[in-house]
Design goal:
This is Peptidase S1 domain-containing protein. Keywords: Disulfide bond, Hydrolase, Membrane, Protease, Serine protease, Signal, Transmembrane, Transmembrane helix. It contains five helices and 14 strands. With 316 residues, it is of the alpha+beta class. The protein has a six-stranded antiparallel β-barrel. Strands 3-4-5-8-7-6 form a six-stranded antiparallel β-barrel. A hairpin with an 8-residue loop joins strand 3 and strand 4. The N and C termini lie far apart (74 Å). The C terminus is likely disordered.
């Protein structure tokens, strides 16, 4: 019997498994700035003592929001999480990091804790925005319902385990990984019926795979002239992570575009609020100026009464 394995660093969830993401970033260099620089280390404070540790990956999808896997959410208490962006070495301060507290957690309503049922996706709202310090970038998203052809080469990134029974690596890792189309991945000797169309399979060659600690991280693919985050690391096989015909399975981002936009305010909404606030403040300022002019005016009582009426109409 083959059991699913969530790829989160939580000892209660699994026994430790290997990972063959063996190529290192050199100072977070990647094929394109918009892919590697959008990587996030999602960290958790399990004892509320201010000590955070890496549990999952994530992706910056706008200045206030992080995309990750639903199974990475161990508690709905947002204050127990922080997102570290611009990270390279988990165990050293590089000077490029930003440590951002989480303000709100939104898990997909279809997530029920069963990896085989899908909907393994969540969005974190940050308490403060990501600052463009030259080491971070917002990821591009795929087009709605966009799929990838069989054998298409993407890149998996993260701080997942590299050795059987080992620990997470200090340095952010990356490796090319080939897409396995749904018609293949859903065959009985592969993942069968639990490989849903809302998922992306990649790997399965027995060499490259995601592993514990990679959960929630991106599957970056160069499509339509840009690097785009096409997947969110969800699960792999129990036992060795890099098994033949058991590829790493990702939540397909293009299948959840409508939901993602529904939980993230449109950029235009911020503009609308700003304009409304400006108009309201301008109106109040106009009323105040009229009031002070009325007080300072020493003209006839009749004229003052007319101005008072105008002021009452304006401000009431």
């Amino acid at each position: 019997v083959l059991y699913l394995l969530c790829l989160t660093i939580v000892t209660a969830c699994f026994t430790l498994k290997p990972n063959l993401l063996i190529e290192e970033y050199a100072c977070l260099q990647f094929t394109d700035v918009g892919s590697a620089f959008s990587q996030v280390s999602l960290q958790f404070d399990s004892y509320s003592d201010g000590l955070f540790y890496h549990i999952c990956g994530g992706t910056i999808i706008d200045s206030f929001h992080i995309l990750t896997a639903a199974h990475c959410i161990l508690s709905m208490d947002a204050h127990l999480y922080r997102a570290v962006v611009g990270e390279h070495n988990l165990y050293e301060y590089d000077g490029s990091e930003e440590f951002l507290p989480v303000e709100r957690i939104v898990v997909h309503p279809g997530w029920n804790g069963d990896l085989a049922k899908g909907n393994d996706i969540a969005i974190l709202r940050l308490a403060s925005p990501v600052y463009d310090n030259g080491y971070v970038a917002i990821a591009n998203l795929p087009y709605p319902d966009q799929t990838l052809p069989h054998g298409f080469t993407c890149y998996i990134t993260g701080w997942g385990l590299m050795d059987f029974g080992g620990s997470i690596p200090a340095i952010l890792q990356e490796s090319p990984i080939n897409v396995v189309e749904h018609s293949v991945c859903s065959q009985p000797e592969w993942w069968g019926s639990i490989a849903l169309k809302t998922m992306v399979c990649a790997g399965g060659d027995g060499i490259i795979s995601g592993c514990q600690g990679d959960s929630g991280g991106p599957l970056n693919c160069f499509t339509d002239g840009a690097w785009r985050v096409h997947g969110v690391v969800s699960y792999g096989p129990s036992g060795r992570c890099n098994q033949v015909k058991k590829p790493t399975v990702f939540t397909r981002v293009s299948s959840f575009q409508d939901w993602m936009y529904s939980v993230r305010p449109s950029p235009l909404s911020h503009v609308s609020k700003t304009v409304t606030t400006f108009l309201l403040l301008s109106f109040l300022l106009f009323c105040l100026l009229g009031y002070f002019r009325l007080i300072a005016d020493s003209i006839s009582p009749l004229h003052s009464q007319i101005k008072l009426k105008c002021f009452q109409i304006c401000c009431v």
